[in-house]
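Dear Dr. H.,

I hope your travels went smoothly. While you were away I took the liberty of generating a structure for the chain from your last submission, since the lab meeting agenda had it listed for discussion. I wanted you to have the full record in hand beforehand rather than looking at slides cold. The sequence, exactly as received, is reproduced here:
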Amino acid sequence: MRILAVDDERTALTSLKRILERHGIWDIETCQKGQDAVALIKQEDFDIVLLDILMPEMDGLAVLEAAKPFRPATEFIVLTAVDDLTTAVQAIRLGAYDYMVKPVDNSRLFLTIERAFERKGLRAGFLGMGSCRNSKGISPEFTHIITQNSRMLELLEYAAVMARSTLAILITGESGTGKELLARGAHRASPYGEGPFVAVNVAAVPDNLFESHFFGHRKGAFTGSEHDFKGYFEQADGGTLFLDEIGEVPPHLQTKLLRAIEDKTITPVGSEKSMKVDVRIISSTNADLDRLCREGRFRLDLLYRIKPAHIHLPPLRERNDDIALLADHFLQDTCKRTGIKRKCFTPQALNMLSALKFEGNVRELAQTVEKAVLLAENDHVRPEHLGGKDTCDDSSEGSKAAEGLCSLKENEERHVVRVLELSMRNRVKAAAILGITVRQLQRKIAQIKADPRWAKIANTL
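The corresponding predicted structure, in token form, is as follows:
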């Protein structure tokens, strides 16, 4: 069990750590600042986070809100001197496992930690069973999302739970990570799943037509309005309105959007009569809305309305184990759509795909694979079709040294060198591709450098 304790008082942390160690828990990390805690939780996988509420700069609720979307499987237990029902309800709504008022009975604290850890284990087991049932998905509504990555599976489980409520959902993540795919899955899994799903690219709506597009207009409301028009809210009545790139709404129009979301009431342009709409709001953005709020470019009250549930999708570079799976899916899809005979990737091509950065994430991977399939003249997609060099015909010093028949050890060395070359000597990425630790990779590099056959490229590794 791995625990992170967060409290601004060093004595409280020392005391808490001593209590946990008495109960046989030794893997404990401590942190005194909320910002540092969020960074740690995003970088490392903790089983339990013991979180104080009252902290300067960034309080415990802000830490919970910022970190839970990145680590939905981590259980948060709030420990605080504030005995306040509203705060407790807010903490539970943000995803806390339990809310405990100090001073906490040691036996009760340890029992709560045990139960939280047990729930985490049960959820992990559920994920494992789900992966066997439905192509490594969690809920049938999300099977269109291709993944075997443990973090993504946790996020899909969390999304399925949030979708079953009527809460607004905010999906964040870089461009191309699949925010709309997740939104459509959440719609299907929601109480509004039988209703329409209306997707709107907010950035594409002109300012002067904002009200007309969102709230509709009546015939004759302005020049050129020859017919009544149902706006996006009315089109989505009884279903889901997906607001893509919500961060692009101009500040002077955010108030009108906020009122419609808050009251579930719209007034079409040219009409004096308001109408009620029952719409579930799901929003997405690749922008940092918290920063935009601090800069005065996004209303804080609007953020609160669209962010009761927050899901952050990781970039593809943090899902390296998904690349081969996704690439094969896109390859099959391209062959089917274009009527091309089924192809497959060479091992060198897959290695190259695993080494690429994919700044455009899954969308860029799909485009790269489709182009490669169209370029491949035979049954195999090779590195040159992906814009790289065919490593089977590589004339580098490393390949020359391993030409012809060779031992398993020599073949392993050749493969390590090839992966290092394809990953631009990035040892972390190369180790991930090879399925070993960075330390193990460093030992292999040291062995290679000691071999005279690799002398000419040893200094470049």
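Two observations you may find useful: The chain has 19 helices and 14 strands. The CA atoms of residues 166 and 218 lie 30 Å apart.

With kind regards,
E. W.
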